[in-house]
Amino acid sequence: MATKNSKAKETEMTVEERLKALYDLQSVESSIDKIRTLRGELPLEVQDLEDEIEGLDTRMGNLDAEIKNLNDAILGKKNEIKEAGLLIKKYEAQQSNVRNNREFDSLSKEMEFQRLEVELCEKRIKEFTFELKSKKEVADSSRQLVEDRKGDLDAKKKELDEIVGETQTEEERLMKKSEEIAKSVSERLQVAFKRIRSNARNGLAVVTVERDACGGCFNKIPPQRQMDIASRKKIIVCEYCGRILVDSAIGGEEK
Ligand SMILES: [Zn+2]
Question: What residues sit around ligand 1, an ion, with C-beta below 5 angstroms?
Answer without folding.
Answer: 214, 216-217, 238, 240-241
